[in-house]
Specification:
Rossmann fold; six-stranded mixed sheet; 240 residues; transport; ABC-type amino acid transporter activity; 10 strands; 9 helices; cell membrane; nucleotide-binding; alpha/beta; binds magnesium ion; binds adenosine-5'-diphosphate
């Protein structure tokens, strides 16, 4: 479903990604980890075209992402993304946050969009908050809204960039629980996270990055039981 072939990227002179290749099959959950600054955010943002690349190829469901003819707005609707900071529209109510892109990007009729939004709010346990504004919700609740908003677009895959790292500890699990449920329902997911408990529970594979390279890309158990690279060993020793 997602395929990266020899992807390299530079910010000016600085090479942030070097020949990154991987594939994510339909229904797979891949956790991306590695030290701060290793290129994890940049890598997953290349998948939905939020970060352009200078070399290599990226395909999502046979659609070439790094092609100037590709409609990136449509692609981003199909590949949902959830960030560290929830990035809800502060001046819109929760339900308006959930319906806006459905109407604008997918041309859904307002009533149908609202119905879908309410259904997904219910799914993340927030149906009673539809008419509140983001600032009236806790961080954990806002992040669950952000996930629901992405799901309103009927995505074929979901990208998460450290979705719990801005949250107070007591709110982390309510967000991870929603993600575990999604994974168990068969959603294709790429997740940048340091939550190794989550990785152990639902990941199929782990990608470990260091200095812009994919250093390891292996089944979860291989990675945790027997990391190959010294950097991954070091990283796991610090984090587990
Ligand atoms: P990670 O998510 O693993 O912490 P990032 O992908 O955010 O890493 O960043 C990788 C490297 O690229 C870092 O050295 C960072 O400083 C640099 N970087 C990230 N975004 C930009 C940018 N817009 N311009 C220049 N350098 C950047
Ligand atoms: Mg990052």
């Amino acid at each position: 479903m997602i395929s990266l072939k020899d992807v390299s990227k530079w910010y000016g002179q600085f090479q942030v990604l070097t020949e990154c290749s991987t594939e994510v099959k339909k229904g797979e959950v891949v956790v991306v980890c590695g030290p701060s600054g290793s290129g994890k955010s940049t890598l997953i943002k290349t998948v939905n075209g939020l970060e352009p690349i200078q070399q290599g190829e990226i395909f999502v469901n046979e659609i070439k992402v790094n092609d100037k003819h590709t409609d990136l707005a449509k692609l981003r609707a199909k590949v949902g993304m959830v960030f560290q900071h929830f990035e809800l529209f502060p001046h819109l109510s929760i339900i308006e946050n959930l319906t806006l892109a459905q109407v604008k990007v997918l041309n859904r009729e307002k009533g149908a969009a609202k119905e879908k939004g309410l259904k997904l709010l219910e799914r993340v346990g927030l149906a009673s908050h539809a008419n509140k504004y983001p600032a009236q919700l806790s961080g954990g609740q806002q992040q669950r809204v952000a996930i629901a908003r992405a799901l309103c677009m009927d995505p074929i895959a979901m990208l998460f960039d450290e979705p719990t790292s801005a949250l107070d500890p007591e709110m982390i699990n309510e967000v991870l629980d929603v993600m575990v449920e999604l994974a168990n329902e068969g959603m294709t997911m790429m997740v940048v996270t340091h939550e190794m408990g989550f990785a152990k529970k639902v990941a199929d594979r782990i990608i470990f990055m260091d200095e812009g390279r994919i250093v390891e890309d292996r089944p979860k158990n291989d990675f945790f039981d027997n990391p190959k690279s010294a950097r991954a060993k070091d990283f796991l020793a610090k984090i587990l």
